[in-house]
Specification:
The complex is a heterodimer of chains A (942) and B (109). Chain A has 38 helices and four strands. Chain A has 942 residues and is mostly helical. The termini of chain B are far apart. In chain B, helix 1 packs antiparallel against helix 2 and helix 2 runs antiparallel to helix 3 (67-98). The chains are: A mainly alpha (942), B mainly alpha (109).
């Protein structure tokens, strides 16, 4: 539980800071710091567990059917990362407080930072790999926010987009890989997966799984050829770089390698892919880093190189190499974070990051210089600093691995070369910045930063020294426990001493140091050569080219398929449906007519059909006279109602009847503002073409209907009919389906209705329309022929009758609502009846009169209705049943004079009441809003 | 009866589609209404045409109609209303903003 709270703490802190970000700005650093401390405190009681060899696992079933549990895990590896994330996070928070300028939105910065911290924490503490993936994606998203923090800068935006695209694509691959992995291992828990290493490695899908997972890890850890997002992410504020590119974001990839080490490693494929990628990245990063003139660019490429080093160590695959990998993760985090911070200080105090311009800063910033020197020495692998220890282990491992390879000697030689470059670029970071003559054209006079800005650097540098001088006393316990977490077994003997005798590794270190010195001394001709021949990097160009090709393709497809014309698009749609439908039907080779016995035609049915056909055709024929066409369409609707009534569907008939009324009024109201007549439009051939298409569509629909109706069918109705009374407590099966069996659907439909009403509310807000007539004023008083619309808008007889009808209609709707469970009726119908009764008041008595007597704003009514429906559903959840399970029973009430009243109650009634409220609210909102347009100053309607 | 029913649906769809292809908002909305009628009738007919069956569970009923398409169509009717209302108000809004009631942005079919 503590684990969950520790992960949630940063998220809550982020929400809190973001919510209050417009008040004050400096307190946010404090709030973020306190949040981090709280997370640490929450984690503290659990820390002892891993040191005693325990793995703490906490779980909460979430979506058990998908194998997705909210399962958390704390073992040595998770512990190490959690401490790094929170510890370095705390230092970064303090540092950023002084780094950011008053113009920056501190609230947004700290909120994003905490969001990222929470995501990282969740990532390293997940037990379920799907949960891990979710946090993985969250780190991509939140790092996007952090990298693009200076939103006004184009390079920040493009850098962030690049990082998101690359790591997001990797995340997608990782999803596939983890799904395969879980499938092979038989579960998505790490405990299951880590124990199933042999099964996984022997599985035929091992290689695709491995490749997909590695794609995820390599994109995140900026491994070649996906490394190019990292230098572009340097547009982020430096505290972000210090955090993301030392201990967190890019380490997520190597974390994944370490995490899945027992499950995936130990095969030739693993060694080749992981080791090869690591070696390539190591060399490439080290080489390019030396030629960067931007301080942060140098650090970025050196980060890439060090990540390659760690990847290579895991690729070698021996337990001891894994230990060295973990050790270098720790060391790199400390020295790289402090170096980024130092670079930030230099940038902050000189206004430049260009190493060709900033020289000789020792004179002004000796203290910062000394700190940077220590960190650089650690990066170079100088003895007595922490980087030396892990680097020597690394050299030793490559020597060990070389005996297993065909061209074994190449490996130690290559990594020594990388070491040479590492020494050279570390040296450049110090010499070129703090010495090497005088600054050129700086805008500011450099000076030491504020006291507290140096504290985070001091802490980290002190760690570099302490670990470097006395490793056994400082880092050994946590390294051992973390290595145990990686290996999921006993840790091999390793000796963290500074002096191991004259081993090959020592000689490699010596060569690297001397070679680096020489290389740096000869840098000028090298720079000139690089300037002349060093091209841009292919990977980024390829990416850009691929991206623009993709966009071009998308544009071409859109242009090719989209015509900005509704008739054209609809014609295509209808044509497509026709072609597909006909092809499917003809392709199946089935006859049009099925074997089901037909129902005889009776006179009433014939009359109905002829009437409907006549009305529909008349609507079509007279459609240019809009009012007439509307009335005819209404007649069609009424005839459809009769069909429902005739074919044993009273619920539908009731609904259709009330909806018909409401729709008719609605369209009449709208028609008032639209032209009354349609001009003849389009060419004759065009209209003939439309006619042919319509005929074909109609013919197709008729044929389809005939084919279906003449075939026998199996229905799932039996279940609903059998369970309606025992399960739902109602005899009206249609209503029981709506409120109980398929209650979730109904809730969704109610929501759609409410949303439509809300949309209409928004669209009609502030709308001013002129009518179809003269075009001046809010609405026409006369029609096109010059006749007055209405000589008596509110006839007395109608008004009086409407008022008389209101209570009766309302009573009727209550009756319909209550009986709906057992007899035709229910919330939808009752809501429509109530709405119609109220709309009648508007029509008969005028908007002003009715407005005084009715609530104005009916939007809350929909809200309450939805809430009631949802709460009814949740109540069953609270009682331990699935969502929207209804409860029902009988209530016996002694009523005077009548005797005992037997009331059948079902919780579905409350749900139906919610539906009722939504319908009333939505329908009235729509119609009253439209009516109000009429009621505007014209005078007729008020 | 089945043939008549199919014919009715065919006529409704045919008229509806023709109206849908007009270039003014109002006929398009009318066409949409006609097509909705047809679709609702069609969905309803998935339970086959039955006369005189009991829609509500009762002791003496000989057989029941299929309640499933009925429940589907019931909500479809209400949603259809919401859609019609939304589209017609959209037409009004478009008229206020663009000054016309055409649906076409150019292009001959």
């Amino acid at each position: 539980m503590n684990l969950l709270l520790a992960i949630l703490a940063p998220f809550l802190g982020a929400a809190l800071i973001f919510g209050t970000r417009h008040r004050g700005r400096l307190r946010f650093a404090g709030a973020a710091g306190v949040t981090t401390l709280i997370a640490l405190a929450l984690l503290a009681p659990s820390l002892a567990g891993p040191f005693q060899g325990e793995t703490l696992i906490w779980r909460l079933a979430w979506v058990p059917s998908l194998g997705l549990d909210l399962a958390l895990r704390l073992d040595g590896l998770g512990l190490l990362f959690a401490l790094m994330i929170l510890g370095i996070g705390l230092l970064v928070i303090l540092y950023a407080r002084y780094y950011l300028s008053p113009a920056d939105d501190m609230g947004r910065f700290y909120a994003s930072l905490l969001l990222f911290m929470g995501a990282m924490l969740g990532l390293v503490l997940s037990e379920n790999v799907l949960l891990l993936l979710m946090f993985w994606e969250l780190t991509s998203l939140s790092s996007f926010l952090l990298i693009s923090f200076w939103q006004g800068r184009a390079d920040a935006r493009s850098g962030a987009r690049l990082a998101l695209t690359i790591t997001g694509a990797g995340g997608l691959a990782l999803l596939g890989g983890l799904l395969l992995l879980g499938h092979i291992a038989g579960g998505y828990d790490l405990s299951t997966i880590l124990a199933a290493g042999d099964t996984i490695r022997a599985h035929p899908w091992y290689l695709p799984t491995l490749v997909l997972i590695l794609l995820g890890a390599f994109t995140k850890s900026a491994q070649f050829p996906f490394h190019f997002w990292l230098p572009n992410a340097m547009a982020a504020p430096t505290p972000v770089s210090a955090y993301l590119h030392s201990a967190t974001m890019v380490k997520a990839g190597v974390f994944l390698l370490a995490r899945l080490f027992p499950a995936l490693s130990g095969t030739p494929e693993w060694s080749a892919l992981v080791g090869g990628t690591g070696l390539a990245t190591l060399l490439l990063g080290a080489f390019v880093a030396l030629f960067q003139h931007d301080l942060k660019g140098l650090l970025a490429y050196s980060t890439i190189s060090h990540l390659g080093l760690i990847t290579l160590l895991f690729g070698i695959g021996t337990p001891l190499a894994a230990v060295a990998g973990v050790f270098h993760i720790i060391n790199h985090a400390t020295f790289k974070a402090s170096l980024f911070m130092a670079a930030g200080i230099i940038d902050h105090e000189t206004g430049s990051r260009d190493m060709r311009r900033i020289n000789g800063l020792w004179r002004w910033m000796p203290y910062t210089g000394a700190l940077a020197m220590v960190a650089s020495a650690a990066m170079a692998g100088v003895p007595l600093f922490n980087g030396f220890l892990s680097k020597e282990m690394f050299f030793a491992e490559t020597v060990g691995a070389s005996s297993l390879l065909r061209f074994g000697a190449v490996l130690p030689a290559a990594v020594t070369l990388a070491g040479v470059f590492a020494v050279a670029y570390s040296l450049r970071f110090i010499h070129d910045v703090f010495f090497n003559g005088d600054p050129i054209g700086l805008t500011k006079t450099p000076h030491e930063p504020p006291r507290w800005m140096k504290v985070p650097v001091e802490v980290l540098v002190a760690l570099c020294l302490l670990v470097g001088i006395a490793p056994a006393l400082t880092v050994e316990p946590i390294l051992a426990v973390a290595a145990q977490g990686v290996l999921q077994g006993p840790v091999p003997d390793h000796d963290l001493a500074i002096w191991h005798g004259f081993s090959p590794a020592l000689w490699m270190s010596v060569i690297a140091l001397i070679g680096g010195l020489l290389l740096y001394a000869g840098r000028k001709p090298l720079f000139a050569l690089h300037e002349r021949f060093g091209g841009r990097f292919l990977a980024r160009d390829l990416y850009e080219a691929g991206l623009s090709a993709l966009f071009a393709l998308a544009r071409r497809l859109t242009r090719g398929s989209d015509r900005p014309s509704l008739p054209v698009m609809l014609s295509l749609l209808v044509l497509g449906a026709l072609v597909l439908g006909a092809a499917g039907f003809l392709g199946a080779g089935a006859g049009l007519t099925g074997p089901r016995p037909l129902m005889p035609v009776d006179g009433l049915g014939l009359l109905w059909a002829l009437g409907l056909i006549a009305a529909a055709l008349a609507t079509l024929a007279l459609h240019r006279r809009r009012l007439v066409a509307l009335v005819l369409a209404g007649a069609v609707g009424l005839l459809v109602t009769l069909a429902f009534l005739g074919f044993s569907a009273p619920d539908l008939a009731l609904t259709q009847l009330s909806v018909e009324l409401v729709t008719l009024i609605l369209l009449l109201l709208a028609l008032y503002f639209l032209p009354q007549e349609d001009p003849v439009e389009g060419s004759l051939p065009g209209r003939v073409r439309d006619g042919v298409l319509a005929l074909a569509a109609g013919g197709g629909a008729a044929a389809l209907t005939w084919a279906v109706l003449t075939r026998p069918y199996e229905s799932i109705a039996g279940f609903f009919i059998a369970n309606s009374i025992p399960g739902g407590g109602g005899a009206n099966v249609v209503n029981v389906i709506l409120v109980d069996f398929r209650g979730f659907d109904t809730l969704g439909e109610g929501t759609v209705l409410a949303l439509a009403a809300l949309g209409i509310h928004a669209m009609l807000g502030g709308l001013h329309l002129s009518g179809s007539g003269s075009g001046s004023g809010p609405g026409p008083a006369r029609d096109a022929a010059g006749r007055a619309w209405d000589s008596d808008p509110h006839p007395v007889i109608l008004a009086t009758l409407a008022r008389l009808l209101l209570p009766l209609a309302l009573l009727m709707s209550v009756f319909i609502l209550l009986r709906g469970h057992n007899l035709p009726g229910g919330g939808f119908i009752a809501g429509l009846i109530t709405a119609v009764a109220l709309i009648l008041q508007y029509l008969a008595n005028g908007v002003a009169w009715t407005r005084e007597r009715l609530p104005q704003n009916l939007l809350p009514l929909m809200g309450w209705g939805l809430l009631l429906a949802a709460v009814t559903g949740l109540a069953s959840l609270a009682l331990g049943y699935p969502f929207l399970t209804s409860a029902h029973g009988h209530l016996h009430l002694p009523v005077p004079l009548v005797g005992e009243l037997d009331l059948e109650l079902a919780s579905a009634m409350a749900f139906d009441l919610g539906v009722y409220l939504v319908v009333v609210g939505a329908v009235l909102t729509v119609l009253i809003h439209l009516g109000r347009l009429h009621a505007a100053p014209a005078g007729d309607w008020t | 009866m089945e043939a008549l029913f199919a014919l009715v649906i065919g006529v409704l769809i045919g008229s509806g589609v023709y109206l849908l292809l007009r270039r003014r908002t109002f006929p398009v909305v009318l066409g949409l209404t006609l097509v909705s009628y047809a679709v609702n009738l069609f969905l309803f007919a998935m339970g086959r045409l039955q006369v005189g069956r009991a829609p509500v569970i009762s002791a003496g009923a000989a057989g029941y109609t299929d309640p499933v398409p009925q429940a589907l169509v019931l909500t479809a009717i209400v949603i259809g209303f919401a859609m019609t209302a939304f589209v017609i108000v959209l037409a009004l809004r478009a008229r206020a903003l663009l000054g016309g009631d055409g649906v076409d942005d150019g292009g001959e079919p």
